[in-house]
Specification:
By secondary structure, the chain is mainly alpha-helical. Helices cover about 75% and strands about 5% of the residues. It starts with a helix and ends with a helix.
Length: about 140
């Protein structure tokens, strides 16, 4: 009976360790996902400070094609021309450019983004503090 007690304690301890590692890995993945969402938010805020002309120039500067001005209608099977708005350009730049590229372009063209960089750091610190707090619970 002593052997089975030791074996059951070892199995219990090992399963607890595996559970903790799984939770830790899940928290790491969640932190990475939140960091990516935060950077997309900051990138969108920076891009909102540009007008359409500047967004076009940014695409040319980084050799990115312009957004597609057509929209496919699934019901009729036809494509229709769409007038591109600022939101089309912002979404296109977010999809094609990285946050670092957008920051670099904004700084080189004298667009004030220091408040957004400060907000980015605050979000990063907040996420890291949450992550450390969750890891301390294990």
């Amino acid at each position: 009976m002593g052997l089975f007690d030791k074996l059951s304690k070892t199995v219990s301890k090992t399963s607890t360790q595996i559970g903790q590692k799984t939770k830790s890995t899940a928290n790491d993945l969640k932190l990475k996902k939140q960091a990516k969402e935060d950077s997309k938010y900051i990138e969108g805020c920076i891009l909102d400070r540009f007008d359409i002309k500047w967004l076009k120039n940014m695409c040319k500067y980084y050799k990115v094609a312009e957004p597609d001005p057509t929209k496919y209608n699934w019901q009729t099977g036809n494509t229709n021309k769409v007038r591109l708005t600022k939101s089309h350009w912002v979404e296109h730049c977010q999809a094609k450019l990285s946050l670092d590229q957008v920051k670099q372009y904004a700084k080189s063209h004298s667009v004030k983004i220091s408040d957004l960089e400060r907000e980015e750091q605050e979000l990063k610190q907040k996420r890291e503090a949450e992550h450390q707090k969750k890891n301390m619970q294990f």
